[in-house]
């Protein structure tokens, strides 16, 4: 079966970039990305590609090339479903905030709504692809909905699992050159035919040996497993960072030493103020919940520790600022460099900066923030969401600056929360001259030049580095 029309439901951080690359690489396929959020669709359609709703290096060029040719963004979900032979579901699957599994399980209401809409609208057979990250065995629920809520006129649905492994900030490079593409489907001949149809799409630019096909459950579970392993590495190195600080070891040296063991490997061993992002925490909590529902308490506890360690890392960073500043930050200006959860993205979901700011505001600090890509409204929304204090209090306690030097002026301390490259190129002497003395820098990303900063006169703390 040759695919000519693809629909993707969900124009977010995954749906937008993923479909833009598919459209660019497959000019013979029409790709329509739909969303219920009209503002988001309008931004995807903005003539000025610097205004796209997702910031990713290289995304603007891909969109500029394909949009209007074979890449379309629309709010007309029904029409796009109707026209497509293959429909990707790329909607959000956040942690549940209510009811059974609150705070742990994935909230599948958006996925269910998609499935119901596809069933209602479809007039011919469809391949439905799970692009969102989902609990293992969700495909059976989707199949049930598709088969039983539609018009009942014999339409056949094939469900594939095709989890996305892109990381934000490098999404375009990851999509153009993925380590692997994973496709899970039914072992029946119809299932295999559906798998092949999706393999054929990716084969336009991904070498076939990197396209892995499995059964549906392996594919669904591999996504949660991959994120759990990645997050576990960060928590493992962060756990060692605390021990390094106590013992005089340097976590970067330790990471290098262990990373040269080819069984361990050098990547993803950067100690930090704690991992953020929309998925690591959500997916591990989901994994923990799934394990618990099968009565696998030891498995659940094992993975939960990754989150406990991460929460500890964020909290101890804030605590260290307070204790170093003579046990009080009340009324003191603390400058934040960075708010995004990592560099090269405007995404702030679960960013460590939010939690560090929240702790410091509890201590009555005056926080001033500079981030090159995150807008003020986003930062306030992140803080308001925690419900720790009123919206007015958040706006009183936290100032957002468009200029980094202004953010640091008069500050007692600077905290580096995101590893943006530009921070390394600043005139640190100028910053020092405009700060209160002693001037402290708390480098939560370990990116600044320690010798240079110390020479200027800063009291410099780097995560994972003992005296
Ligand atoms: P997102 O919140 O940025 O985007 C989801 C979009 O879906 C939103 O724009 C929302 O309006 C839309 N939507 C929700 N319900 C809809 C409906 N019924 N009809 C039409 N549109 C609807 O989320 P995201 O970051 O793109 O993540 C999507 C999925 O991909 C999640 O399951 C996530 O775990 C997974 N994932 C994310 C990343 C990442 O880097 N962000 C990477 C891999 C996998
Ligand atoms: C992560 C995975 O890397 C992707 O493969 C996956 O598709 C995605 O989650 C998802 O499912 O959403 P992402 O969260 O975008 O991607 O970014 P990462 O590069 O993994 O970084 C996550 C967090 O860990 C960031 O806060 C980052 O600063 C932190 N991190 C990462 C470290 O502190 N140290 C490291 O060595 C690596």
Automatic annotation (TrEMBL):
Query: Which GO biological process annotations does it have?
Result: glycosaminoglycan biosynthetic process; UDP-glucuronate biosynthetic process
The GO terms describing molecular function are:
NAD binding; UDP-glucose 6-dehydrogenase activity
Question: Which pathway does UniProt place it in?
Answer: Nucleotide-sugar biosynthesis; UDP-alpha-D-glucuronate biosynthesis; UDP-alpha-D-glucuronate from UDP-alpha-D-glucose: step 1/1
Q: Where is the UDP-glucose/GDP-mannose dehydrogenase C-terminal domain?
A: 335-450
Which residues does the record give as NAD(+) binding sites? 10-15, 35, 40, 91-95, 132-133, 168, 279-282, 349
User: Gene3D superfamilies recorded for this chain?
Assistant: Cytochrome c1, transmembrane anchor, C-terminal, NAD(P)-binding Rossmann-like Domain
Catalytic site positions = 279
Does the record carry NAD as a key word?
A: yes
Where on this chain does substrate bind? 164-168, 223-227, 263, 270-276, 341-342, 445
Q: Which NCBIfam families match?
A: NDP-sugDHase
| Family under the similarity heading | Belongs to the UDP-glucose/GDP-mannose dehydrogenase family.
Q: What is this protein called?
A: UDP-glucose 6-dehydrogenase
Source organism: Zhouia amylolytica AD3
Taxonomy, top ranks, is: Bacteria, Pseudomonadati, Bacteroidota, Flavobacteriia, Flavobacteriales
């Amino acid at each position: 079966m040759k695919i000519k029309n693809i629909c993707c439901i969900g124009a977010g951080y995954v749906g937008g970039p993923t479909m833009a690359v598919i459209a660019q690489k497959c000019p013979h396929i029409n790709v329509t990305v739909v969303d219920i959020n009209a503002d988001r669709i309008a931004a995807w359609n903005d003539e000025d590609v610097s205004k796209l709703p997702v910031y990713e290096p290289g995304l603007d060029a891909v969109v500029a090339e394909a949009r209007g040719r074979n890449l379309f963004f629309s709010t007309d979900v029904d029409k796009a479903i109707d026209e497509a032979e293959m429909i990707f579901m790329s909607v959000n699957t956040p942690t549940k905030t209510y009811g059974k599994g609150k705070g742990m399980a994935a909230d599948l209401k958006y996925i269910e709504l998609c499935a119901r809409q596809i069933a209602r609208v479809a007039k011919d057979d469809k391949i439905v692809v799970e692009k969102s990250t989902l609990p293992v065995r969700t495909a059976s629920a989707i199949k049930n909905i598709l088969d039983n809520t539609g018009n009942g006129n014999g339409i056949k649905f094939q469900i594939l699992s095709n989890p996305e492994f892109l990381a934000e900030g490098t999404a375009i490079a990851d999509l153009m050159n993925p380590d692997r593409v994973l496709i899970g489907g039914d072992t029946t001949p119809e299932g295999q035919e559906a798998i092949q149809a999706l393999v054929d799409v990716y084969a336009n630019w991904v070498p076939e040996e990197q396209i892995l096909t499995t059964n549906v459950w392996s594919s669904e579970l591999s996504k949660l497993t991959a994120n759990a392993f990645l997050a576990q590495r960060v928590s493992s190195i962060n756990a060692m960072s605390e021990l390094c600080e106590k013992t005089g070891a340097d976590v970067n040296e330790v990471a290098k030493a262990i990373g040269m063991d080819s069984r361990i490997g050098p990547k993803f061993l950067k100690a930090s103020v704690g991992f953020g992002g929309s998925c690591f925490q959500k997916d591990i909590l989901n994994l923990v919940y799934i394990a618990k529902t099968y009565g696998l308490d030891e498995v659940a506890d094992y993975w939960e520790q990754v989150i406990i360690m991460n929460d500890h890392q964020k909290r101890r960073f804030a605590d260290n600022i307070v204790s170093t500043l003579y046990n009080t930050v009340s009324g003191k200006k603390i400058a934040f460099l960075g708010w995004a959860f990592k560099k090269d993205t405007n995404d702030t979901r679960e960013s460590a900066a939010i939690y560090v700011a929240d702790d410091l505001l509890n201590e009555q600090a005056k926080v001033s923030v500079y981030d090159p890509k995150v807008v003020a409204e986003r930062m306030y929304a992140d803080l308001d969401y925690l419900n720790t204090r009123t919206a007015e209090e958040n706006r009183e306690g936290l100032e957002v600056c468009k200029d980094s030097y202004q953010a640091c002026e008069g500050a007692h301390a600077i905290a580096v929360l995101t590893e943006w490259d530009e921070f390394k190129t600043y005139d640190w002497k100028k910053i020092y001259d405009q700060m209160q003395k002693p001037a402290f820098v708390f480098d939560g990303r370990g990116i600044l030049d320690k010798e240079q900063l110390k020479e200027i006169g800063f009291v410099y703390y780097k995560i994972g580095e003992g005296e």
